[in-house]
Amino acid sequence: MVQGLDMVKLTFVPVILVMAIAGFAWGAQQPAADVNAPQTLEEYLRYAALHNAGLKAAFEEWKAALEQVPQAEALPDPTFTYGYFMEQLETRQRAGIMQMFPWFGKIEARTDAAAAAAKAAHKRYEARKLQLFFDVKEAFYEYVYLATAIQVARENLELAQHFEEIARTKYLTAMGTHPDIIRAQIRVAELQYRLTALERSRDPNVARLNAVLNRPAEAPLPWPRQEPTRPVEIDHRTIVAAMKENNPQLQAMGFDVEQLRREVDVAKRNFYPDIGLEAEWMRMNMGGMSGDKDDLMLGLQLNLPIWRRSYKAGELQARAMARRAQHEKQDMENELVARTASALYEYEDSGRQVQLYGKALVPKAQQLIGASEAAYMAGTIDFLSLIDAQQTLLEYRLEYERASASQQQRLAELEMLAGTDFSGMTPESRPNAQMPAQAEVETPDHRN
Fold first, then answer.
1. How many Å apart are CA 275 and CA 301, to the nearest integer?
2. Which of 65, 261, 298, 318 could form a cystine bridge with 267, CB 3.0-4.6 A?
3. d(Cα 269, Cα 109) in Å, to the nearest integer?
4. What span, in angstroms and rounded, lies between the C-alpha atoms of 344 and 417?
5. Please, which contacts does 436-441 make with residues 24 or more away whose CB atoms are closer than 8 Å?
6. What is the CA radius of gyration of the chain?
7. Of 92, 94, 91, whose CA–CA distance to 80 is shortest?
């Protein structure tokens, strides 16, 4: 029996050694995290607001739209003319200036349209900022989940190695069987692979965060520090009403509708002439003793809007575009209502899972581990039952962490959709803060 055990050790130790060396080499290749890099959610949001390229582009678009307003309210440039005439008996010259004035109300309608477009650009900037904050929060909580999942996987690997020692001890004392050791070693190898996979997934998570922060993809980021959060109770009617009132995408489309309606007013005024006022000075050389003579002329000009079919087509086009914008706004509202309902369901379902795993399943699975280990030592259950108990605990703990991260991600989505910060609406503690101490998993902040 001892000889069989030695053979197992000789065949399996190289595998473990190779995997351990590979894991150490991968960890050694990881660059040290920048001490000035953000760690808390607040730091991430502040950094993204200052550096994100997409948000800067939306801000510049808003600034450009604002500059359209003074252009829309300005009159056309005045026209200056000068002429010099030479004839046989006399020489004369003249100079004139003319200013065109659009028909009454045309400038006001055009200015209102430009102002509405600027307001729409401002709301799209706000929508881009909310979208950015949601992207940051979603990636941040995914990073938090990865950190805790790695810690859970490490603890379960240590537990599996402990079970291997138990199986080895029972085998040496003739109380266990050889297959139990092999099963334990297989379980250790599986958990080692799972831990390595989780550790290697850090790079794409960091790249995702760096993308929204406008940092180089390979720039290192330390493990995040998650601060305590509060549960939020939101009913469907309240959040839908908040979404319809505060969502900046809907508000921007409302200003689009207003802009196009003002464009209809501009198109209707194309049926009327623009008015031009002209002043002209003329000097004539009379010859002889008469000297020069100056004349001043005031004139009025009107363009002739005779192409009525073209103006009518322009008005109909403007009306169709206004109706299209109204339909698009209604369609967007319907989509947002459906998305809000889906996000609210997922948020509430994640909360239920947090309660289920945190207060019931994880503690029970931990009790099962202790009871199974004692029963295995007493010989009343087989080793497979012990392994199953450990697998159950691992899955429950990971599901708990997944539900906790998903709950915060969906809350961030609801805040983006409603354009409202829901944090701090209730004084209760976050549900997972009440999880038993033995089931808590701390974020490994000490690692780089």
1. 6
2. 318
3. 9
4. 11
5. 436/362, 436/363, 438/363, 438/366, 439/358, 439/362, 439/363, 439/366, 439/397, 439/400, 441/148, 441/151, 441/152, 441/155, 441/397, 441/401
6. 38
7. 94
State how far the Cα of 130 lies from the Cα of 418, in Å rounded to an integer: 10
91: pLDDT confidence band, cut at 50, 70 and 90?
A: low
* pLDDT digit string, tens, across residues 206-261: 999 999 999 999 999 999 987 777 778 888 898 999 999 999 999 999 999 999 99
Q: Model confidence over 110-149: pLDDT tens digits?
A: 999 999 999 999 999 999 999 999 999 999 999 999 999 9
pLDDT of residue 142: 95
| Residues 279, 298: Cα–Cα separation, whole Å | 5
Strand-by-strand arrangement of the 91-101 sheet: 79-86, 91-101, 275-285, 292-302
pLDDT confidence band for 83 (50 / 70 / 90): confident
Q: Report the 10 Å Cβ neighbour count for 429.
A: 12
Q: Which one is the CATH code of 31-439: 3.40.50.200, 1.10.260.40, 1.20.1600.10, 1.10.10.10?
A: 1.20.1600.10
For residue 408, pLDDT beyond 70:
yes
